[in-house]
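Components:
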Amino acid sequence: MPDPMRIRATIQDGEATVRVLMSHEMETGQRKDAAGNVIPAHFIQSVVAMHNGRPVFRAEWGPAVSKNPYLQFQFGGAKAGDKVQITWVDNKGETRTDEVVIR
Amino acid sequence: MKRIAWWTVAIAAGALLSLVGLRAHAQPRDAVKEIERYREALAEGNPAELWEARGEALWKTTRGPRKVLLEGCDLGKGLGVVKGAYAALPRYFADVDRVMDIETRLVQCMVTLQSFTAAEATRQVFGDGTKRSDLEALVAYVAAESKGVVMDVPMTHLKEREAYALGERIFFFRGGSHDFSCASCHGEPGKRIRLQDLPNLIDPKDAQRAYTSWPAYRVSQGELRTMQWRLFDCFRQQRFPALQFGSDASIALTTFLARNANGGTFNAPAIKR
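Structure:
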C-alpha cells in the first residue's frame, strides 16, 4: 500500500485551493545503479481530483516530475465542508486515493 | 517650453548616477535575497511533511517485542509529551544519568519501552535512498511539534554544563589530515563555501538561525536529515574519523550548538539544497 498523501484544501471567494504532497520515488528509468544496471522507471502517470462526483483536475505526468511531487491547483463551484478525492496511478499500476475536507 | 535651470539638471543627473551606483554595489545582496525567496517558495510542499506523517504513525503505533506505544517516552517535558520537547534538548535525564539529544533519547525509549535491542533500533539511522530510517521519521515528527517554540536548552545540571564545555572544546579542536576544526568554517562571520553561506556558530544570531533549521529535508539527498547526520557529515568533510552515532562527542557538540541557539524560534523541519 503506497504512502498516504498530505492534502490541504482551503476555500476563498468561491475558489478552492488544493495542495497535495505525494510520496513517490518518481524514478525516471534513465538512471543506472552502481553495478551499471538501469533502475526501472517508476513514476506517477495520472492524477485525478474528484469533487461531488465530477473530475475537477487531471494531470498526465512523465519522468520529468521529481520525487515526492507537490501539486497545487484551484477550482470553482465548491464550498467549505465539501470533500475532494485525489487519485494517482503510476506506470506499474499502483494507485493511491486520499480524501480531504475543504476548510 | 520653460527653460530648466542647468543646476536642476545637474542635481537630477547626480541623483540618477548615485542610484545606479547603489544598485551596482547592491547586486551581491540581491543574489542572497533571491536565494532566500526561492527557498521560501520551496518551503510550501516541503517533503519533510511525509517524514513527519511517518514519524507520527511510528510514535502512535504499538511496536517492538513488547508491542507498546512510544507514547510512554519522556523526552524531557513529561511522559508522552512531544510538544516543545525538541526545543529543550539536549538535556540531562535522571533515569540514565546522562545528557541525551533527541536521537539517543528515542533509541533509549525504543530499547527500554518497546524492548528493541540497541542494534535493532540503530540498524538504519540514516536513510540511504532505498532503505528508510525510522529514526529520521521520528525526529521529523518530534521536531515539527516544536515549531514556533523558543529554544530553551537547560544548563542547570552539572552534566549539562560539562557537555557544553566538552562541545565547545570539540568545536575549536583542530585535527585530521587538513587540520580543520569546526571553527575553521563556522568560527568567523561572512564565510561561505562555493554558494553556501556558512553560519558563524559562536554568534548567537547565526547560531539561532542555523540550529533552528535542522532537521531539514535535503533536496540533494532526497532525505530528511537530522543533527546527528549533519555533524556526521561535517566530520566527513573535515576528513575526520567517522563520528559515531549517538556518541558522547556528538551529544556534547549538539549541546554546545543548541545552547548557543537559545532564544531563537524553532522553525524545523525546513528544506535545504
